[in-house]
Structure formats: structure tokens, C-alpha cells
Amino acid sequence: MTELSANPPEVSSADGYQQSRQSKPLQTLIRWIGVLTVLLAITPILVIAASWGSDQSDVWQHLIETQLFSLLRNTIVLVLGVTFGVVTLGVSLAWLTVMCEFPGRRFFDWALMLPLAMPAYVLAFVVLGVFDFGGPIQGLLQGIIGEDYRYVDVRSEGTVIVVLALVFYPYVYMLARSAFLSQSSDVIEAARVLGASRWEVFFQVALPMARPAIIAGASLAIMETLADFGAVAVFNYDTFTTAIYKSWFGLFNIQAAAQLASLLLLFVALALFAEKSARGNRRYTQSGKKLHRFRHPLIGLRGYLASAYAWLVLLIAFLLPVIVLLQWVWQEGFAAVDARYFGLLSRTLLLGAIAAVLTIVMALMVAFGRQQTRGGLRSFYDLGTLGYAMPGSVLAVGIMLSFAFIDRNLLVPLYDWMAIETKHLLVGSVLGLLAAYWVRFLAVAHGPVDASLQSIKHTIPEAARSLGASSWDTFWHVYLPMLRPGLLTALVLVFVDVMKEMPATLLLRPFGWDTLAIRVYEMTSEGEWQRAALPALTLVLIGLLPVIQALRQSAR
Amino acid sequence: MKPAINTLEVVVRSLCATVMAVLLMACGEQSAPESEQTTETQPAVEAQSAESKELVVYSARNEHLIKPLFDRFTEQTGININFITDKEGPLLTRLKAEGENSPADLLITVDAGNLWHAAQEGVLAATESEVLEARVPAHLQDEENRWYAVSIRARTMIYNTDKVNAEELSTYEALAGEDWNGRLCLRTSKKVYNQSLVATMIASMGEQEAEQIVSGWVGNLASDPFSNDTKVMEAIAAGQCDVGIVNTYYYGRLMKQNPELPLAIFWPNQEGGGFDQRGVHINVSGAGVTSASKNKAEALQFIEWMAGNEAQTIMMELNQEYPVSAETTLTEELAAWGRFKADSINVAKAGELQADAVKLMDRVGYK
Question: What ipTM describes this predicted complex?
């Protein structure tokens, strides 16, 4: 029922009108910043794609003869499984908390975002530890059943899919939640009055209207899945990313690794393009009417079932790993809570906060720029978000290589020319690290920002302009308030993601700029999971703050 | 609508204020190392006094396993050390990309393959050191002296003492035999430690024979390969399998946590003929001076210090790694595990043949 919100045909002429009206200096500036941002985000991808200039046919031959097809199969199964999982979990939970009333709803409303702060590999490790052969669950079962008990191997495809879906569903949940929140009850009530059942309303009205948000969330989850190495490595489940790292670290062939990575990007680009063309020219705007909400009460057993469902998700995706982490922290003692720990903590917060704000600003520019562009040029803006699907280390190296190029060919000659002895280079500077963050997380911010910008009916800012508001006024008093849920969602996502980020931080951090995630890496890469528990738990707890803040802001 | 705008403005303003404060703070913090850097670029006349010197290290050895050594070195020499840690691959790529602009003086890795690769890529400088020639055996250093091992990591067998008698065990190769069907646990072939092991097997017995052995291992696996050595040992202790191949320091760490586990070390390939007696497979953690280094003398001084008794003992205590020099006395803990003969093949072979080893393991389906 997108027709409900789709624009009548004559609106396209108004679009042209809007464009001609808006060719003001401010708009031009914003557009150029947007273009530059996207260019910067594309550069690392181009650096990686440039690997096709070298001939790596022996590696390809080897891969085709041995693993390539099973890796492709695994990757496709994983992506399909995780997509199904995150959409089912994310949409159903968002629907329950926004549209229904059940025991504990107010708690779940924010609590269900918490798994976002849980690094995927931590959940993978905990799940394996608890449910594996030597773990407590199977040990207990064996104790009860006795000799006849046959061990179940949890290191299976199904478990990997479930783990990744549990970690990544908050992307869909958060985006679908803000989409449902911004849907007016009027539309839904109208549909009900016209005779649609509750299920029909859900599938034919609410779901199609939330489609851009759900797709944006699912895309993020898919890209994270493709880029994931930590969680699949815990299960020794080989994906395309495994082949990339194997070529790089095992065969010492970074060119072949880059070729594989760029192929991965091509698939993602094609998938996104396919979705965009399927969506066509439909627009997903809302009426500007004042929203009011009527929550459908789930009474009796149905309410408790809804509650139990939310509990189960929260239990496995968040409470279980937190309990295990707490237990490890307890075992290790609190000797590690020292000055150094607080240094890690403050740098993590610092980098997270600056990077989040910078990235949101950039994403806003990109989204505005994209909106004012038509046709084929729009895909240019979408290119900037592709890097997110690349395995972290590969993208980090792409970023590092492009920065090193700038250092070598621009900064060093410049310093030489100015006869400056101390050479401050981009690689290894705070600025370089921040730039790396917004290159990497532009996609994360772009999703929610662009989705909420798309849902603003363009007649609203036009009305403001025709009433004499300057473009600054329009931005400050019209766009910003209406974009608020999307911006806050983006802010939370980027903040949490930056804090969890490892590969780019590892490679590009200035000396001494270790973060909590670095500490987690150092410990886990040596297999010292217990000692990694304190920084990991801290990351999870900091992740709570923006989640809670965002909720207080967006609660109505 | 009005109050919403106000709260938003407050939020945005406070965020802006935070960012401004934070940026200024970041600049402030940054200026501290800057001033040190200026002293670093001072001409060499002043460099005679080591106090003003500073070394930059790219380390694949993790912070908690290297920082105590840096601190001790600084304490003794007054040479300050700045470092970043990361995996070898990204560090090497960065070193290469930075070229002569690289601030790095030293590269430290935790396996020989990557040192060999770094030398191939031309980012390490040839050095000369009598101290290192005396302390580090020839098979644990580069022929052109571009890198030296600073510690030894032994990859040996661990067995379940309730289910296996040590006399049943003999060599890595024997684990491919029928006796061990369904009783073997291995870590994933994606870990460089296993790649080195197979690479040295290729070096000593040829590719064909090595492929048969590894294929036999895969056939004997009790379960899919595990993601780390500790998981392998836990599976052996839980009875999922009887024997596995792991690095000794993981064993040391696990037994410290849980001394009751029915696990014991077995040193394979100690006797017999041909490659049966080549000794336990070892890999090394090592260091090399970078070509871009402007402080080569101090960088080499650091490696020499690392090979000295004090640093060697710190590494034994930190991570139960074996010393490179026979002159260093083993700690009680390491001595308790027994003496063993180590494979004397040049560890650079592990790098040279690593790609072949990876391909071999792919061919036989060792995941």
C-alpha cells in the first residue's frame, strides 16, 4: 500500500521547482562537501580495486581448484540466513514494542537495542563456551541422561547464523522502530476502518511504509556479516572473508586478497542496486499531521508470549554474554582497573564522540547532496557507503594506503618546500584516525539519516521557504527537528561502532592512543579471553549510555 | 513543536561544545610527543648521549608481552620507546607504504614466516652484531642478518593421561596412522603456527610425503578443527579426542588455571632414523631493524638487549617462551616440562614454504 504515501505524478514538477529555488550558495557548498566526502570514502575502494592491475592467476587457480565454491556457498547461505534472521527479529520486535502493549514493553523498548554493543566475536565465543562439548549445558545433559547421551556439535552453520543474527538484529530493530514511530496511527486506523485485518495492516500498510528503513538496517547487517571475520573464525566457518585473509596472511599475497575483496564489493553493489531498482521511484513520505499513537493491547497469554519472546532474545544476545563476562572479570580480579584503564576508557570515549559527530555531519551533507541530485548521479553517492562490506583489515589497509599516498606525494614535498623539519603525517595522526572512522562508518550513518530525510515530504520545507524562512531557518527549524530520530539513531550506531572498531584503530592510531577495543584485541589474539573481559564489558556498558540517551530523546 | 526544538538545540550545542573541548584537548595531548619528536630529528652530533634518543617499534607481539621489556630497556638505557601493535600483515603493509618516511625503527613479529616475508619485501636492513651472532644460533636468524629470533615457541603434542600411554606416541607423522583414527584434535590450518609446522615438514620430507601425512591427520580428526589451541586442549581433557598439537605456553597457561586437567606434554620426533628424529617443531618471535630507521645503532642495541639473559628470562616468565640462547637458564616452570631436542632447520624455511603449506592443507581439506 505504498500508494498511500506515494506522491501523485504532478509532484515531480514541484521537484524541479524546488531545485531551481535551492541553487543558493549554502546548498552548493553542502553539495560540494557531500561530493568530497563521498570521493574520500571511495578512494580506499579504488586503491583496492587497483589490485586487478597485477596478475594473480595462480592464486585464483588454487582457489578454484580447492575452496572457492564451498566458500561462495557458505557465504551465500550465511547472508541469506542472517538476513532472514535480522529482519524477522528486528521487525517483529520493533512492531511489538511500538504498536502493541504487553508486560515489560517499556523496558524492552530500549533494552532490545543493547545487543548492539556486544561485539559479534564475544557472543560467538561465549555461546561456544556455554553450549560446546565441554561446556556446562552439555555436561549437565550428560549428567541427566547418562551414557546414552550423544553430544551435539554446536560448531555448525546454524549456530553461526543464529549468533550473527542476534548481534546484528538491532540495526533492523532500531531503524524499523523509528520508522514505525514516525508512522501516523491515522493511516493504520484508516486501513482498519476500510476493513483490513491486523495482519493485513501490518503486511500491506506498515511494512511497505517502513521498507526503506528495514532495507537500510538489513543492508548494514549484511555488510557486517560479509565483513565479519572474528565470529566466523571462532566457529572455524569459512567464508569469502576467510579466503581474503588466507591469501593475505597465509599466501603473503595482498594483491590477490585485494582482488577477492573488490569482488565481494561488486556483489554488494549489485545487490544494493537491484534493491534500489526494485523500489523504483516510489517515495516514502509521511503526512505532516500531528502523530498520535494507539497501542494495541496484547491481553492474557498473548501478552506473556510476546514478553517471553523478547526475554529470550535479550537473554541469549545480551544477558548471557554479560553474565559470562562478569564472571571472568570477577575471576581476574579488579587489579586491571588502574590509571591505564581509565586512559583507555577516556580515549575510547573521546574518539567515539568526535568521530560520531563528524560522521553524522558528513552523512547529512551526503544525504542532502544525494536528495538534490537526480538519476544516475545518485548512484555515485551510494558508492561511498560500499566500503562497509569490506573486511575491516582490508578497508583499513585501503585507507592507510590512500593516506600514505597523500603523505608521500603531498605533505612531505610540502614540508620540504616550506623547509619544515618535523613532518606531521596523516598516517599515525589523530586526524588520520578520525578520517578513517568516517570513511568506514559513513555507511552506518547514511542509512538512518537518508531514510529519515526521504520520509520528509518536500512540500514542508517548500512551505517554510515560501513563508519567508531562510535556508538556515529551514534547516534549523524544519529539517533538523524532523530528522531528529534518524540523526540520533545514526549517532548511537556510529558512536558504538567506532568504540568497537579494531582494524583501522590498530593500524592508524598515534603512539599511545590505545583504546578498549585495542586491549580486547591484544588479549583475545593471544587467547586470553578472561583478561579481555574487563575492557569488553566496559565497552558494552558504555554502549548503554547513548542507547538510553537516544531513547529518552526519541520517546514521545 | 517548540520545546522539541529547544531540547534539540541544547543537545546539539552541548555536543558541539564537547567536540570543541575534545579537539583542543587532543591537540594539547598531541603536542607532548611532538616536542619529543623534534629532539629526535636533531642532528647526530647530539645523539652521542643516548638520553635524547627514541625508538619507534611496530610490534605484532602484543602489548602485554612486549611492554614490560620496553620499560625495562628504557630504564636501563634511557632510550624511550614508542610503539604500535597490530597483526603482521597490516604492519608490514604500512611499513612498505610509508617507505623512507616511516617512523619505525624496528619490526617485531611472532613468527618466522613474516620476518622472512618482511626481508623479502626489502623493509628490513642488514645488520652486523657480534653479540647476536654469539647469542642467537645460526638457524634462528636471517642469512643476511636482517632479522634475529628473540624467543622460541615450541609446538608439541598434548595427550589425555587417562586415555593415552606416553609410549604410544612417537612423531607428528605417526598421528596420521590408523591407530589414531577418530582420536586426534587439531587447530585450524589458518593459524600460522600450523602453516609453519607443515612448511617445515615439506622441507624435511618433501611435498608428496607431507601431503600424505596431513591428509592422514585430517582423516583421523575426532572433530572439525578448533579455532585456538586452548579449545584443542579442552577437547582433549573433556574426552572428545585423545591427542593434539599445541604451543607449550598455551598448555602452561591452561594448567595454571586448572592443574587437575588430565593433560601432559609429549616431545615428539626425538629418536629414530631420518626425519623421525628431527626434533620438536619450533617457531620464533623475532625482530629486525627497518631500512627506513634513522636510529639503526640503537635499534640493533635493543635487539641485542632482547637476546640477553635478563630479557630472555622476562619472556620466559611472561609467556613461558623458550630462550634463544643455550646459555640462559630455564625457569623452574619450563625446566619441569623436560628438555627436548628442537628441529634445527632454519626457521626462514617456514616463510619460504608457507604458501606451499597453505595450498597443501587446502588440497587435503584441512580447514
Answer: 0.84
